[in-house]
Amino acid sequence: MTQSFRDLVVWQRAMQLTVAIYKLTQGFPREEQFGLTSQIRRSVVSIPSNIAEGQGRTTAGEFKQFLGIARGSTCEVQTQLEIARALSFGEANKIDDAEALSNEVRKMLFGLLSSLDAEPHQNLRSQQRQL
Length: 131
Hints:
Layout: H1 9-25, H2 36-55, H3 60-86, H4 92-118, H5 124-129
Helix pairs in contact: 1-2, 1-4, 2-3, 3-4
């Protein structure tokens, strides 16, 4: 049984993505500190934070709501990575790595949401055992 949000692989990958984004944005231009750097960092921190908050809730509906927010934040990060690439901000290989992680997290969130939708009558704790 999942005891903690830390046990969720999707949360673990989202944390890896967060670290990757922070490392990437260290190479962004100084004048972007309050622009794209700040925006992408806020978006990426939101992903594992919402997964954790949702897992701490008591109903599957609440968990799904927070997973949906995390999924939206993942799409934001992917958009911001495209902007960074277009503006040649950061190292291309770090953008590629972050993009790959964000795709993995997005797919995992879609899968987890689908599994929660497929079993509407199970309670949240029994669903988390399957993760």
